[in-house]
Design a protein that fits this description.
By secondary structure, this protein is mainly alpha-helical. It folds into 2 domains: 106 residues, no CATH class; 47 residues, no CATH class. 55% of the residues lie in helices and 7% in strands. The chain contains 6 helices and 3 strands, in the order αααααββαβ. The protein has a 3-stranded mixed sheet, with no helix packed on it. β1 and β2 form a beta hairpin.
C-alpha cells in the first residue's frame, strides 16, 4: 500500500470521530498541568491527531509493507481489546495515531521525555530515538515495540 493511501484512510477514520475530539479537548483542558503518564500520552496523541488532520499528503510517496501493517494492526487490536474493550472510539483513535506514527511519521509510540512506572524512559539523542525499556517490553506477547522506531538501550 502507498503511504498516501494509508494517510487518507487514517484521516477519514479520524474525521468520523468529531464528537470524540470534543471529549479530548475537555480532557486536555482538565489535565493541562498534569504530568501523569496518561496526561502526557493524551497530549502526545492529540498533537499527532491534529498533525494528521492538517497534513495534505506525502511527498515523496513510498510503499508500506502490507504484511507488517497487517501484523501491527493485529497486535494493536489485541492490545486495545485487552485494555479498552468497551471503547470503540478510543480504539479507532489510538489505532489511527499509532499506525501513523509507525508507518508514516516514523516517530516513537510514546513521546520522548516520558518515564514509565518502572523507571524506563524514551529519549532522543543525535536525531535518533531510544527506549530504555524496549529490551524488556518487546518480550511481552504481541508487543507493539517490534514496530516502534525507538532503539533499545
Amino acid at each position: 500500500m502507498k503511504a498516501s493511501i494509508l494517510l487518507l484512510n487514517i484521516k477519514g477514520d479520524l474525521e468520523m470521530l468529531s464528537s470524540y475530539r470534543s471529549l479530548l479537548k475537555k480532557k486536555l483542558a482538565d489535565d493541562v498541568n498534569s504530568s501523569t503518564i496518561g496526561s502526557i500520552m493524551t497530549r502526545y496523541n492529540y498533537d499527532n491527531f491534529v498533525e494528521i488532520l492538517d497534513r495534505d499528503g506525502i511527498d515523496p510517496d513510498f510503499e508500506i509493507d502490507d504484511v507488517k501493517l497487517n501484523d501491527f494492526q493485529y497486535r494493536i487490536r489485541h492490545y486495545l481489546n485487552t485494555y479498552a474493550p468497551e471503547d470503540a472510539d478510543l480504539q479507532k483513535y489510538i489505532t489511527c495515531i499509532s499506525t501513523y506514527l509507525v508507518f508514516i511519521a516514523v516517530r516513537p509510540l510514546h513521546p520522548p521525555g516520558i518515564e514509565f512506572s518502572n523507571g524506563a524512559n524514551v529519549f532522543e539523542k543525535d536525531g535518533s530515538f531510544y527506549c530504555s525499556g524496549k529490551r524488556t517490553f518487546i518480550k511481552e506477547d504481541l508487543s507493539l515495540c517490534k514496530y516502534c522506531v525507538c532503539r533499545a538501550v
